[in-house]
Amino acid sequence: MTVLIVDDNAMNVLVIEEMLKRAGYVDFQSAQSAEEMFALLAGEGDVNGNAPLLGRVDLILLDVMMPMMDGIEACRRLQADARYKDIPVIMVTAVGDSRKLAEALDAGASDFVTKPINKIELLARIRSALKLKRELDWHKERDARLREELLLARQVQESVLPDEVNDSRVRIRAYYQASEELAGDLYAWHRIDDNRWAIAVIDTMGHGISSSLMSMFIASILKEAIGTLWSPERVFKELNRRLTGLQWENELIHYYCTGIYATLDLERRRLDYINAGHPPGYLFSAKGERPEELSVSCPPLGLFDKLELASRSIPLSSEGELILFTDGIFGLFEGSDEARLAQLADYLQARGSEADLERLVRSAPSDGRSDDRCVVKAEIRLGGAPV
User: Which of 311, 325, 324 is closest to 273 using CA atoms?
Assistant: First the structure.
């Protein structure tokens, strides 16, 4: 553990060094001014040949009264610098100078000792400060590992999301912004055969690690179910069965999800869907009319063992756009839920370009709440008369 002693009085430095030596501390260094301290901390060394201390200081003993820059101002600068703000600072101050002591603590000092220095008091405060520094370093190391693991988990999570589709009759693309390192929103699409596509948007309960794990679990179910079951009723029935089959230690906690699952039959020109407690999707026609709503048709998935699942159908025109989204988008608008939904419909109808949708998911929410945002847009270009 490295201790840095900062004092313009050579005798004070000598006394403190001797106390530290006799207490068994061997790694300490001194500076005669705040400027010299910052030079050592920044890795520049000093004129006396002392080695730079960049990243190696565990504690600073800082005298309050020094020329040029006093200890209080030096402490403020230490706290303002991200490289040094976690180094505990023990201020050395004169007896009875309570005003200076209060200023030092307000500037960010973690503790203090008074002159003349009492050895027992000094060593006790040093032990306490170094213990705090060890605990802080442990937490920082753990947080760094957690961030690395979250980054890896984010990459894995994003790897299961489908790539953009762009063929002669259908173009599908997602616009996505996670509120945290991990997200609970999920989208998927799958080509069933030459004439049929399946598209799903899912929003799992909550945020963070638990929500992201649930979304990965749901993604694995969807991948299997869409390829084998494909119809809205059968896919959501299977997803609900798997979610309600999960066993939780806390009976008061139930993880569930809302979602829309839609199939596009390009030959029969029909859209079939089920909306499980999710915000309604929109099917826009090329004529500029008000969009068809994919309104709620059943409760969210994962709450009830049995659900009445019946798909609804909407005819497809020769040209149109299907837009599905999660409720995080609502945070960009103001008013009641109905008012926000109406504002979103107007926005999508008037400004549905790629740049507009990117701006939509990345804008700051008006309500100040952070939430995942997802928009999936499927452009349908059939042409000719229906079969």
Answer: 311
Kindly tell me the burial class for residue 184, based on how many C-beta atoms sit within 10 Å of its own C-beta (0-12, 13-18, 19 or more): buried
Which one-letter DSSP state was computed for residue 248? -
Q: Which residues contact 134 (CB under 8 A, 6 or more apart)?
A: none
CA–CA gap between residue 278 and residue 219 (Å, rounded)? 17
Backbone angles phi, psi at 43, to 5 degrees: 90, 20
Q: Say how far apart CA 326 and CA 330 lie, in whole Å.
A: 8
Question: Residue 15 is encoded by which pair of tokens?
Answer: 């006394």
Q: What is the CA angle 136-32-98, rounded to 5?
A: 65
The torsion angles phi and psi of 4, rounded to 5 degrees, stand at -110, 120
Per DSSP, the residues of 273-305 read EEEESPPPEEEEETT-PPPEEE---BPPBTS-S
Taking each helix axis from N to C end, the angle separating 98-106 and 71-80, rounded to the nearest 10 degrees, works out to 10
Tell me how many degrees the CA angle 300-301-305 measures, rounded to the nearest 5.
115
Strand order in the sheet with 292-294: 165-166, 170-177, 373-381, 319-325, 281-285, 292-294
| Interatomic CA distance for residues 283 and 51, integer angstroms | 69
Q: What are the residue ranges of helices labelled H in the chain? A: 10-22, 34-41, 71-80, 98-106, 119-159, 208-228, 232-244, 337-350, 354-362
| Pairwise CA distance, residues 267 & 269, whole Å | 5
Determine the pLDDT at residue 352.
75
Instruction: Enter the tokens of residue 269.
Output: 């020109």
Buried b (16+ CB within 10 A) or exposed e, 120-143: eebbebbeebbeebeeeeeeeeee
Whole-number Å distance between alpha carbons of 375 and 174: 6
Residue 42 has a pLDDT of 85
Residue whose tokens read 């993880």: 255
3-state SS assignment for residue 162: coil
pLDDT of residue 387: 44
Which tokens sit at 55? 């990243």
Say if strands 319-325 and 281-285 run parallel, antiparallel, or are unpaired. Answer: antiparallel
**Which residues in the chain show pLDDT less than 50?**
47, 386-387
- On whether the pTM is more than 0.85, the answer is no
